[in-house]
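Exercise 7. Given the components listed, write out the predicted structure of the assembled complex. Treat all entries as one system.
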Amino acid sequence: MLNVGQLNEGVVLDHIEAGKSMSIYKYLKLDQMDCCVAIIKNAHSNKMGKKDIIKVECPIDELDLNVLGFIDHRITVNIIQNGAIVAKKDLKLPKKLINIIHCKNPRCITSIEQELDQIFFLADEERETYRCMYCEEKYRSSRKKN
Amino acid sequence: MRHLMSPLDFSVEELDRLLDLANDIEANPEKYAHACSGRKLATLFYEPSTRTRLSFEAAMLNLGGSVLGFSSADSSSAAKGESVSDTIRVISCYADICAMRHPKEGAPLVASTKSRIPVINAGDGGHQHPTQTLTDLLTIRSLKGRLGKFTIGLCGDLKFGRTVHSLIQALIRYPDVNFILISPEELRIPDNIREDVLRRNHQNFKEVVRLEDALPDLDLLYMTRVQKERFFNEEDYVRMKDFYILDREKMKLAGPDMIVLHPLPRVNEISVDIDDDPRAAYFKQVQYGVYVRMALILTLLEVKVC
Ligand SMILES: [Zn+2]
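Answer.
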């Protein structure tokens, strides 16, 4: 059982694939937030061997957790209030990704107009395919199938 | 307010209404001669495409409207580094509707999000060219009397040919279309069209190399040219560009009602010998391109003609 004693309000992201915690730190834009974050690398896991854990102390609605569904849906998201787990959030593939990934198509308008938002939409849920809203170039999500 | 970005923006029913309107324009051009009087079409062409631009301009002039615009990026404010978003905000003050051609994919979509007037995608890179597809559909429906229940051969550069990809995506919405994909090995249809569009929608299709093998079975033959800029070396291009030449001999293999379409301009792939063959429909196709653009302008401007 995970010790959440130190957190009053926030989230604990458990079962992160070992080594991925820093990229999640960036995707969640935790570097831009003024809150208390603990990253645990290579923790022991019966299920995974090794895993990473991130604990964030902040009001829940300040975090865009939907992006986690895009990164890896197997991450366990524990919502903490008053020092206890009050809910676990199911991760789904977000319908839209804004400024999370970038279009690599050199013919895309975003390649010359950098001030445009990078917007991808979920084109095929079954195949987990995202496409650039502008040029429709495919981007494959890193989420793995069970 | 509506824009046109992709040929699939219109439902099958909406498309039927648009094509009906185009056919009515064809039958009664005088009825529409002043439908857009006092209105302006801006043609914003960031790369030259004289044929497409003139077709849009002719369409607006036929409706009694007027046109303004630019025909290449270096004669426009884009050369000074103005963004598409700023340009369209400015053009929205000058014109009632605009057609945008841009080498970068998605540029017309960016414009549509900032525009106060309807934006028509007149071709964005290798991405979409919806008015070409609308032209093809109108030509097929007018000359064959229907969309669907036919066998269509698509011949030439099926790998890079954007018009072919769009046409396939538009035609799978109609019943009983058989596709015969005719191309050299190097220019076969890309996987995403074969798997995601044709196979996934359970379409009947086959891929062949020889045009002669397909011709007897076709109701329609859609020829495309091999574009030089797609090749890294001259040698490959020269070999590919003459891979298919439709001439009198080959036309003997086709049925009496088969029609030949081509998005033009052609290079070598259709011999001028068959231009007078009644089955050669590629110049009629150009005329239908003007009618369909007229219908599109009326539809997007919500002009009703009684
Ligand atoms: Zn893109």
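Discussion: The CA atoms of residues 15 and 75 of chain A lie 5 Å apart. Helices of chain A lie at 21-27, 66-71.
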